[in-house]
């Protein structure tokens, strides 16, 4: 295992709040970060360098690769052509396979099922006829999603009855889709798992997530899980990372159901549901990711506090003056400017028991 | 109290590790930092902007002031001429009086004594004759220091007997000096105190410091103090900040002696002996300083863990590979390149009881 010397530069594809917090974590370990981001880059406020260029700009991609020692990413929808070029120039961690799988819901479900893991029942949908057949076979309600590019509730629609099928299909504009059967789950938890270059795996304690309008609102640790469920969740996450020869942090979202744990989704990056680790662990998910990507040993991610992480979405930031005065409360703002509905503006970690 | 809106820019004079950690803290609150530093600037790796220019460069100082909303500093020896210019353009927090007092050991001691606080016995020394007279009156051993610009053991010499006086005086090259009488102290502690724009004061729990070769090696919390000593230390620090109408974080170094607490030194900035707050508090000294400077309310600095902070000086960084694997240990590296003897390369916070 070769570790990146201090003073090395880590390239990060994507300049949002995840890149911002990754860059800060990298600085703690003596590294610099170079952000590549086509749009506005809150991460640029705390980065050594920022390249503002589209992912189609080959010259900028080459210059970026030349200036960094290793490349990672804060979001999974980087175009394949950009990745092809970058991969020929510098190591990309986590690897392309993890990205390819998580970029496509059908690849993801197939990969998980092949590993012997449970998911929601699903069917590929490429036409209105497919959708009718899938609805018949899986039953309704079900959720129709584009196979690619959806996040935070975008690109998906809930189907409650067969009458809604034509409109739902029309809304997808001919995109390749997947219909996911309804899962009656008790709760949703996620495991933030890390794997180092030498294959060690370490998982943070699972957090319990509450979503609203398809967007994560809170993560609470500890989650309501039996000891057996907790160890199942962690083993299952480790199996995914090992199968992918993964290097870095991954978010693994799970449904807790009467028939066991189902994998909802995997995200090959630091994850919103892991923000609580900033207040509850000696080494947080951001530093854990940087350690893995840099070839360093994983750090001590044991949980020492109970924490509730709450996202500040849109006008939630108006509560900041009050939150700044609250006890046991760490406020994290992303420097994004004006709030918009649905926009993640920051988050708060509240320690509920130290 | 007017608070700085998110997205505002805080100017920081000095680009060392303190500026680096201040910039990171500012980003958590949605602010950008612009660093002004004549030399190498580790803070630049995580800053929005860096100006590399001498403090004598009026045009650069003006451009810097024009680009920021408020100015603070990470070290107290900024030349007066630069401060005069900057102060005419933008608010400087903490204020000039705090800077002026702490820049000169005689002003500092006089200010503290006038406040009714104890210090080491001292005398101003401007000639070899002064030094002889002072040694007679204070007794030896004693410590001869330049009144200005000394830190980390530089610009000072211990006088054990009168025979050493001519050489000691000669070594000072005619600089204005102070002779400080020897203090038989039980221990050295420091209080990291913060005062907001509206005059609220909050102090972190005192830490106990161990120096070697004039450089801080470790700070341990809790310090060995009786409850009365602890509250005396905090009240005394608060008195200093109030007397100066101070805004920001100050480090107040104290000697614990049989005849009470003596003030050794005050530093009008975040302080090395406050680095433990990164591991033991919801809001650390860096964020507390930024909050004060930005006109925000002070945060919850209550201590929730026992911590030992250890500085990594010179070749201590060779221990980093081992430290990265240690339990309950947070490693902070400053990105300074090659280690040199006496150079602060990073620090480690070890939680000893959570």
TrEMBL record, chains A, B:
Official protein name in the record: N5-carboxyaminoimidazole ribonucleotide synthase
Domain ATP-grasp: 109-294
Organism: Rhodobacter calidifons
Catalyzed reaction equations: 5-amino-1-(5-phospho-beta-D-ribosyl)imidazole + hydrogencarbonate + ATP = 5-carboxyamino-1-(5-phospho-D-ribosyl)imidazole + ADP + phosphate + 2 H(+)
UniProt-listed Enzyme Commission number(s): 6.3.4.18
Pathway stated in the Swiss-Prot or TrEMBL entry: Purine metabolism; IMP biosynthesis via de novo pathway; 5-amino-1-(5-phospho-D-ribosyl)imidazole-4-carboxylate from 5-amino-1-(5-phospho-D-ribosyl)imidazole (N5-CAIR route): step 1/2
Positions bound to ATP: 105, 145, 150-156, 180-183, 188, 211, 264-265
GO MF annotations in UniProt: 5-(carboxyamino)imidazole ribonucleotide synthase activity
Keyword Nucleotide-binding belongs to the record: yes
Keyword flag GTP-binding: no
Top EC class for this record: ligase
Keyword annotations of the record: ATP-binding, Ligase, Nucleotide-binding, Purine biosynthesis
Family classification: Belongs to the PurK/PurT family.
């Amino acid at each position: 295992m070769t570790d990146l010397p201090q003073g090395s530069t880590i390239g990060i594809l994507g300049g949002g709040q995840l890149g911002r917090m990754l860059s800060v974590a990298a600085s703690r370990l003596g590294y610099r970060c170079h952000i590549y981001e086509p749009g506005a880059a809150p991460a640029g406020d705390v980065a050594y360098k920022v390249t503002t260029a589209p992912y189609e700009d080959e010259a900028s991609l080459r210059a970026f690769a030349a200036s960094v020692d290793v490349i990672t990413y804060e979001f999974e929808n980087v175009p394949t052509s950009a990745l092809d070029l970058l991969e020929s120039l510098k190591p990309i961690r986590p690897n392309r396979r993890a990205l390819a799988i998580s970029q496509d819901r059908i690849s993801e479900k197939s990969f998980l099922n092949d590993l012997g893991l449970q998911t929601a029942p699903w069917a590929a949908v490429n036409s209105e006829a497919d959708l009718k057949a899938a609805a018949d076979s899986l039953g309704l309600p079900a959720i129709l999603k584009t196979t690619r590019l959806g996040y935070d509730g975008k690109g998906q629609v809930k189907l409650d009855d067969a009458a809604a099928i034509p409109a739902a299909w029309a809304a997808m504009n001919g995109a390749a889709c997947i219909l996911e059967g309804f899962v009656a789950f008790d709760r949703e938890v996620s495991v933030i798992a890390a794997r180092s270059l030498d294959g060690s795996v370490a998982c943070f304690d699972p957090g319990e997530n509450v979503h609203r309008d398809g967007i994560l609102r809170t993560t609470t640790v500890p989650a309501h899980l039996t000891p057996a469920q907790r160890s199942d969740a962690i083993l299952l996450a480790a199996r995914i990372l090992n199968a992918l020869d993964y290097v870095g942090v991954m978010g693994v979202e799970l449904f807790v159901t009467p028939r066991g744990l189902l994998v909802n989704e995997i995200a090959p990056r630091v994850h919103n549901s892991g923000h609580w680790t900033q207040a509850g662990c000696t080494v947080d998910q951001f530093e854990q990711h940087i350690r893995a990507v840099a070839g360093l040993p994983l750090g001590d991610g044991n949980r020492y506090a109970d924490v509730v992480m709450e996202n500040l979405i849109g006008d939630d930031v108006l509560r900041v003056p009050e939150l700044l005065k609250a006890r046991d409360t760490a406020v994290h703002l992303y420097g994004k400017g004006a709030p918009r509905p649905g926009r993640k503006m920051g988050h708060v970690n509240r320690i509920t028991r130290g």
